[in-house]
Specification:
Helix Hairpins, five-stranded mixed beta sheet, two-stranded antiparallel ribbon, alpha+beta, 385 residues, elongated, 10% strand
């Protein structure tokens, strides 16, 4: 009768009848569980293998479960045989749980080691490597993030290499363009100092031109620097693009005449835009100057302005046209279709089209080389809305 009543006792009834004993048992279990949890957290930070951490975590959970079952069994006044049966069932369950964790953790550990090897190789400089994990969990997300990071690193390294090459070219070309006027200035100055200059005024005029060339080089490099840093402050006002082009033609007429070239503008009537008159004048002068330097003597450099959809300016000449391999780099700095051509007028060699592109893009427009047998460059800027 007593055994039957003991077996029929539930855990709830035991707790009700023996609250002090139940509080003591489950209070101890709670303290033990929390302590073990903090100990496992500390271990996981130092553990070298994820699979081992998972296995210890599962075993610890099973130990807690067995202990909880034992405490509950004692509170329910189970016999020794019944308690042994509970422990045996729990032990068998623990064995299967351990087997399951070992199989699953092997896959997880392999993926983690693969991530580690990949990161190590990326760290050593292999930017072509990608993580091949197909997992959809957090490890898969980490792999995708690593792939994105490597892609960005590759792009940044390519950009850094390109910038380094551009910097070297910039220094080389600036040094080249500085060397000629400085050498001429030195020679003219020495001739004047030594008193061997037969025509001092001619020497002084030559020195003035060289000083102007140096000033233009400094201004062009400073302008490109401001364009690169987006620090160029353009004052935009309503202007007539035809008037800007006409003023540019008038300013360059003496240069064209000296080269035996005639400047022509096809006037479509007023074409109004909201832009910086200084910037647009600089663009058009650069393009006209480029045309003068490429046009054969006795031919025309034509400026054509239209307003079909956008304000478009085309500057063309009767030259042989740009080489096909030059079109890709035409608007890069210090590039010339004819590398042996010396700079006679306009901006310092190789900066005119680069400056034109920067100023056009600052207005939200685009610039391109016309696909024709003539040397022709065009740009467009938006019309007022």
């Amino acid at each position: 009768m007593t055994a039957t009543l003991a077996m029929e006792m539930t855990l709830g009834s035991v707790i009700t009848k023996h609250p002090e004993l139940a509080a003591l048992g489950f209070g101890g279990m709670t303290i033990g569980t929390v302590s073990l949890a903090f100990a496992l957290r500390a271990y996981q930070r130092r553990a070298r293998r994820l699979s081992r951490s998972l296995l210890i975590l599962v075993l610890s959970a099973l130990v807690i479960a067995v202990a909880a079952a034992a405490v509950a069994s004692r509170l329910m006044v189970l016999t020794g045989a019944e308690l042994a049966a509970v422990v045996e069932v729990t032990a068998v369950s623990a064995g299967f749980a351990v087997l399951l964790v070992m199989i699953v953790s092997r896959s997880i550990g392999g993926d983690v080691r693969h991530l580690e090897r990949t990161v190590r190789r990326i760290e050593s400089g292999d930017r072509a490597l990608r993580v091949g994990s197909r997992r959809a969990d957090e490890l898969g997300h980490v792999g995708s993030a690593i792939n994105d990071l490597v892609g960005r690193l590759k792009a940044l390294e390519d950009e850094r290499v390109a910038l380094e090459i551009e910097r070297q070219n910039l220094l080389t070309n600036i040094g080249h363009d500085l060397r000629s006027p400085l050498a001429a200035l030195q020679a003219a100055t020495e001739a004047l100092v030594d008193g061997v200059a037969r025509d001092p005024q001619r020497y002084l005029r030559s020195m003035l031109r060289d000083i102007e060339a140096l000033g233009e080089l400094i201004e062009d490099v400073a302008l490109l620097s401001e364009l690169d840093a987006n620090r160029l402050d353009l004052e935009r006002i309503p202007i007539n693009l035809v008037e800007i082009a006409d003023a540019a033609i008038e300013a360059l007429e003496p240069v064209a005449t000296a080269a035996g070239v005639h400047l022509v503008m096809l006037d479509p009537g007023p074409v109004h835009v909201i832009a910086s008159p200084v910037a647009l004048a600089r663009i058009i002068r650069n393009l006209i100057d480029n045309g003068i330097r490429h046009a054969p003597a006795g031919t025309d450099v034509t400026v054509h302005i239209s307003s079909e959809g956008a304000a478009t300016v085309r500057v063309s000449d009767a030259g042989p046209g740009f080489p096909s391999d030059f079109r890709v780099s035409a608007f890069d700095r210090f590039t010339r279709a004819d590398a042996s051509r010396s700079r006679n007028t306009g901006t310092v060699g190789g900066l005119g089209l680069a400056i034109a592109r920067g100023l056009v893009e600052a207005h939200g427009g685009e610039i391109w080389i016309e696909d024709s047998s003539r040397t022709s460059v065009a740009f467009r800027v938006p019309l007022p809305v």
